[in-house]
Amino acid sequence: MREYKAVPLGYAAADVAALGDARPALRDFPTPLVTLSESAVAHNLATMAEWCRTAGVGLAPHGKTTMSRELWQRQLDAGAWGITVATPWQASVALGWGVPRVLLANALVQPAALRALAPDTDRLTVWADSLRGVEIMTESLAGLDLPEPLAVLVELGAPGGRTGARTADEAVAIARAVAASPVLRLAGVAGYEGALAHDGRPESLATVRGYLQALGELHDGFEAEGLYAAGAPAIITAGGSAYFDLVAEVLAPRRDLDGSGGRVVDVLLRSGAYITHDDGFYSVITPLGRVGGGEFRSAIHGWATVVSRPEPGLALVDAGKRDFPYDEGMPVPQAIRALGAASGIPLDGAVVTAMNDQHTFVRLPSHARVEVGDVIRFGLSHPCTTFDKWRALAVVDDALAAEPHVTGLLETAFG
């Protein structure tokens, strides 16, 4: 298993397979290391499922966060409608893994990819935000034997946002083109509010609410104009991990799973980071901190060994940008385990000031006792750029336990 940096040197496939029974102590594993805490993952899955039930929305979690077949299946088992992905390759992985419904939250405008995914149009839904995109899809799929027309959601954007039609009139024109295509089916509306705000200030929340109201009104306009096919279901989807409470507040009233209003309509969140949460960006901005309904727990932690104490107040550890995320905040030192010790103690007052490819600079308070060979546990920020650095993560029973034990290895698929 040399290709997995998460396992002890010399481990063979049989050793990895036996982790669940052997439950070795985490202190026997090499660093740098990122662990996944099973107790926190189980808690987060249950918390999000209950929140969605109470709020009256569905969930199609973004799979790009983890690219883990095991975690995707656990999300589906917890009631998720399907899995969201961002690229044609990710869609092919999800379809190949047997995910029953795959939502590609992006425009699919590569002819070769369209033809490759054509056999699975009965499980795939994509986005469109331009007339040219509709033309490409129609031309690429023409003449193919499709299980059914490809479901397309029209994406509404906003000035200063990311992708998406910038006005309702543009979005309606795109919807008309989709509805007129012989190989496409207008399936609803989509958007992403997370690009419009980055905090919980009242003005930020107002911006998000206004955008979501426009998204709902766009769906209403499609219905009023008769652009949806008779009897066909529709989807309204928005919601990253920062404002899913507002999505439920504004859009959940349009959900109609039994079609009593004339059409089956589902409202789907696409939040993905909840499954692991973090100790940085999402811990601050999570909607559960604003509206209640439980709490998420950080399931990802970094572990690194002190390899140098070159000057007073400075420790260098053996993990860097190749191992820990840094795009949404530096890792946060939380605890230290002395060489040979079974458990750690809090490391208050320490701070990360810089990172290199394979080293992190930790500035220490004067009272800290830190020696070469000690191991520091770090809180991490941004799960998406944590998982993509690891082909496998060590799963522990509880990263915050006095002595965590490894119970398995979680493999990921990143191209």
UniProtKB/TrEMBL annotation:
<dbReference type="InterPro" id="IPR042208">
    <property type="entry name" value="D-ser_dehydrat-like_sf"/>
</dbReference>
<keyword id="KW-0456">Lyase</keyword>
<dbReference type="InterPro" id="IPR001608">
    <property type="entry name" value="Ala_racemase_N"/>
</dbReference>
<dbReference type="Pfam" id="PF01168">
    <property type="entry name" value="Ala_racemase_N"/>
</dbReference>
<dbReference type="Pfam" id="PF14031">
    <property type="entry name" value="D-ser_dehydrat"/>
</dbReference>
<dbReference type="InterPro" id="IPR026956">
    <property type="entry name" value="D-ser_dehydrat-like_dom"/>
</dbReference>
<dbReference type="GO" id="GO:0016829">
    <property type="term" value="F:lyase activity"/>
</dbReference>
<dbReference type="InterPro" id="IPR051466">
    <property type="entry name" value="D-amino_acid_metab_enzyme"/>
</dbReference>
<comment type="similarity">
    <text>Belongs to the DSD1 family.</text>
</comment>
<dbReference type="InterPro" id="IPR029066">
    <property type="entry name" value="PLP-binding_barrel"/>
</dbReference>
<feature type="domain" description="D-serine dehydratase-like">
    <location>
        <begin position="299"/>
        <end position="397"/>
    </location>
</feature>
<protein>
    <submittedName>
        <fullName>D-serine deaminase-like pyridoxal phosphate-dependent protein</fullName>
    </submittedName>
</protein>
